[in-house]
Structure formats: structure tokens, C-alpha cells
Amino acid sequence: MPILLAPGHRRKRSAPPATITPGRPGGESGPSPHRAAFRPDIEGLRAVAVLAVLAFHAQIPGAAGGFVGVDVFFVISGYLITGLLVREAITTGRIRLGDFFSRRARRLLPSAAVVLAAVAVAGAWMTVPLRRADLEHDVLAAALSVANWRFVSQRTDYLAAGHDQSPLLHFWSLAVEEQFYLVWAPLLAVIVLTAARAVRRGRAVRVVVALVTAGAAVASFALSLHWTRDSVSLAYLGTPSRVWQFAVGALLALLPWHLLRGPRPLRLVCGWAGAAAILWCVVAYDASTPYPGHAALVPTLGAAAVILAAIPGRGERDIQGAYGVGRLLAARAPRAVGRLSYTLYLWHWPVLVLAEARLGALGWPAKTAWTLAAVLPALATMRWVEQPLRRSRTVSELPRRGLAVGISAVVLPVVLALVVGTTTLRLLGPATPVDVGSLPPGAAAGPSLLSRADGSVLADGPVVPGPAQARGDFPPDGGCQVAPAVTSSPPCLFGAVDSPDRVVLLGDSHAGQWFSPLLALASRRGWALQELVKQGCPLPELTVKSPQLGRVYRECDTWRDDALDRLRTGPRPRLIVIASLNRYTADPELLTTAWEKTLKRLRASGAPIVYVEGTPVPGTDIPACVSGAPDETAACAFDRAEALPPDPLARRIAAGAVPGVRSVGVNAVLCPGDGPTCPAVRDRILLYRDETHLTNVAAVVLAPRLERLLTESGALPVTAPGGPGGPAGPTR
What we know:
Number of helices: 28
Radius of gyration: 30 Å
Strand content: 5-15%
Helix content: 40-55%
Largest sheet: 7 strands, mixed
Low-confidence stretches: 1-30, 720-732
Mean pLDDT: 88
């Protein structure tokens, strides 16, 4: 949802409206677009938009497409703000940017600051330390109007996925709008300056601005289509891919609809059709809809149709009519919700997310109740913050005062976030990488994770890695786990890169977590290690959908074909180690068939193949949990049945149904015994960096065990040939 800016009932004017005289600049068409008369139907349309968003966030059945409310708000904003700026340009011959940004600052930023400050403080006692640190970063991004880019970076990074929703995720749309107007208003001011000496200034301004707007709309929509195909996060949250929706609203204000005469039946149909289109999207769209893309045209044009249907024509003051949709939207109840829509939007999502952080997962009835509870702080913020500052003569008298209010509203949450965030980071300890050389040796066999022969265990103290370190405890593979959009791995050779002998590590990120142990065993033998790993890409031949790309993962199929062909046609490896998450499909028969297709192609290389069984999948953010219970890590144990479902490939290999493939696994030490839960920490080693992957520290400690298992399986020689080779850097 964008920041809402529309004139209310009481509009203060700094000067009486200019008189437009025929024959003078701008006089031929008056100070449109469009007359500054208050539009109660638009206030009601805001209500429709915000209720759609609230129903979507509360997960009310039948409202899975409520996210289209954001699109409606963007159109409304483009219509009102562009109309306001162009009217000023036509009437006065210039756009006073100081006044414009001062109005926005005093009306919008204080309410946002109240919410951000409340979230920063609430996060200090309602969330665990690691999530609290993330939250304070979100507060900073939201206060500085760059929240959308922070969330883009998180959602497009596969290896950083799996974190809980931010209470400030909804600030992405506010950031989009602020970024848009930081460019749009100065651009219009420049256009007005170039048209200032035109004989017919009003027409010149409208024509030039309309052409620029149309060009921006076409370019932005084309970019939106491209990003929707290639990066759903960029498409949905990125400012450039949303410009066209503001532009649609702007064109409503720029084109000469006001010259049309009288209400017509077509307007009646136009208004109701637009409203029906919006409601249809709310009901028909869901998370599987490629968005924004072409699908965003329906709610965007629907909102435009509702606004267009009630634009007064020549000589008209009110064209709502008895049966127009505008008459319904202009009723008292929709307008009351519309007036509250900005502060209600600001408050509802933090209330929902923080309630779940405190109480656990909620069903839709409980979420609806919490959403309704958000009305109270929203009303208070509107009554005691938004309205007094908007109507204050003292503040509105000089632009610099409004700007000072806005700057203060930015500084307050920033200071709070820095104070709380700094305190939290001190509590969490260092986030610097762990020195794996200082770790005690891992056990090659037995029930313990660490070797007990010399009594080596980690002394009582903090877990290693610490929760903050665990988040970034990735394999040191130089970024060779290629991103979703990449279709071919670089050479990615490590260790003795000139050796004719090499171990190949092949699969998805669950294969990539074994990089350090395999590099160690390859280096000791004087071999090279080649890593062919792609994020979120199943090694079995399955066609899946990428959450990062928001569509069918075609790049995965291309990458898999390329990797298998390289192994088939290139020099024969000494060993191929494969691993892959087995949760890309719930159909065991489909998974078995997909694995057989891949393994058939792998056997063509003639190299020994070893499958490393899938490790436990906790399904929850383990570092965050441990940060909240550093001395009671048993509280972060997770359900064994959910974390370790049957591994169909391992079972088939054990039964001898998969010739030429061996299987090894370390789950007996990661999840020992036969109890109902698996531990998050063993011997003070924090095992997981997120909800699914091992920390690199855990993988290093498991290296002796993995090497023993590979040797016992016959995949490695008992005595390593050659002297120990030190690990070398990657070659790409």
C-alpha cells in the first residue's frame, strides 16, 4: 500500500486560486486536471483497498488475492498527487518543491515514526535477540524509505531464505512511493520550467507531462513483465516495476476527461466494471498468480475505471448518480474506513506479526481479531498525530517547519533502532567467522560428535558458532553454489587444482554443505575438488518452481543437463559425491523415477558414486531459537518425524536396487537415539545455520566421520596416496 495523500474536507490554501483568463497562458483550458473538489468516492475506494489488504494478511478464506489492494492505492496516489502538482504548475507557472515535500513530511512521516518507534521498542522484549537484531535493521531501512530494497535483497538470496516475516514488511510499498515522488516531483518541476514561456502554458504542461508519463508507463510495464519472469521479488517490491501503476493514475489526471459532457450510461458501466474487476482479483488471485506481470493490469485498470467514472465533465459538479458505484463508495462507512486507511495499514501488520511471535502460529479467526484490534492504535495515531500536524497553522505556515517535522520523524526511529540494535549485538556476541582450526577434533565413530580419546570437548561456555555467527557460517567455496538465475557452474576447482584426480561434489545446497569435509579429504590425498552445486535445484530430474524466481525453475533443468553432460564427456573423476534435499515432491514414486533418470546419466561417467543421505530439516530458525535460550538449548530441539522422513533413495540403495551407487549417512550422530526429537546443539556445537542447512562448523567437525564412512564404503582407498596436500584457493 502506498502512502496516502488526498485532500480532506478541510483544505488550507496558502493563496486564493488564480483567475484564468482566456487568451492568457493556460487560460484556454482552465486549471485542470482535475478540479480540486474533494472526491468522497476516492476516500471510499481507499477503504476497499485497505480492507482487501487486511483480509489477505489475516488469511480470511476467499481473500487470497487481497494483495491487489496495494495496486489500487498506487493508482489513487498517482491520480491525486500528479493532479495536485499539475494544477499548481498551470495556475502559478511553477511547482514549489519545498511546499510539496513539506506537506508530505508533516502528514505522513510522523504517523510512520510512531509505528516504527513502537515496533523498535516492542521488539526489544517480544522477540528473541537474533530476530531483534534483524528487526532493528528493518526499522532503519523503513525509516530511511529503502525497506523495499532490503526485502528484495533478502528474498532474492536463496541461502538467506527461511527467516520469519518482518513486522515491517508492509513498509515496502511506502518506500516505493517515497522513492517515486523523490524523482517524479522534481522531474515535473523541470518540465514546468521548460514550458514556462509557452503561449499556452496549461496545454504545454499537460501534453509534455502526459508524453513523459506514457513513456514511463510503457518502460516500467515492460520491466515488470521481464522481472516477473526472472525475479518475482524484484518485480513485486522493486520501484521501477511499479512506476507504471502510478503513471496510470497520473494519466487519469492529465488527459482531458474533464471536457466530456454530462454523465452517460457508459460511465455507470465503467465504474461498476472497475469495482467488479478489483473484487474478482481479490477472490480469484492467490500466491500462485505470477505477479505483478500481466495479472496486475486487472486491478490497476479496475481502479482507474472507478476513478474515471466519477471525474466531473464540463459544467458538472457531481456525476455520481443514484446508481453509480461512486455513490456507494461515498457513503459514510466506506469514507470512515478510508480516512483511517493510512494509519490502519501502518499498524495492522506489526500487530499480527508480533502477536504470532509471542503466541505462536494463529489461525485466520485469531488473525482477524488481532487485525480488528489494530483499529485502536490506528485511531489514536490518526486523532493525536496525523490530524493535528496536518492541520497545524504553525507547522504548515513555513515549508521548513514541515520538513523539520519530517526529519525528526525519521531521526526518532533511527536512534531507537541503533540503541536497541547495538545492545542486542553486544548480547549476541561477535558475528565474525569462526576459526575452524581451533575446533576440537570430531569423532570418526561412536555416538559422540567430538572425539573423546583425549578428553577434548568444548568447555562450558557459549555455543560455537554463536547464533549471529551461525547465520553467516557458509562453506568457504567462493560463491560456487550458483544462484537461481545461473544456468551453468564455473569450473570451481579447489585443493590440488593441477591434479588429474578429482572429487566432484554435485547437487543442491544440501550437497554444498559438505564442501569443507570433502576439500579436506581431497587435499590430504593430493586431489582436486570440483563443486557443481546450484541453489534450490533438485539433482533428481524434477521440474519444480523457484520461490526466488516465482515461476517454473527452467534454469535448474538447464544447469542439471549441463552438469551431467560435463561429467559424462569430461575426464573421469575419482569419486562423485551427490546429495539433494528430498522434499521437492511429496510423491515417492515420482521422486524414485526422477532419481533413476539422473543416476542413469551419472553412471555413464564410469566414476564411483556415493550418495550422502539427507540431514535433518528442523523446519524452524535454529540460530534465532538458540539466541533466545543460550543456556537451555534443549528447548530448541525439533520433531524427529518431521525432520527425518524416510529417504527413499537410501532405502533403495541399501536394498541393492540401485547398482553402482553407495550410500553413507551421519544422521545417527546428528539425531541420536530413537526419541521423539532431534537436538539443535551437540557438545556445544550449533548444528544448523537456518531451518534446513548445517553450519560449516558442524560439517568440519563431521569430516573425520564422513571420511571413515566413505573409506568403509570402498569409495576411497584405505591409505591415501601421496603426501598431505594443503587446501588451495578456488579457480573459477
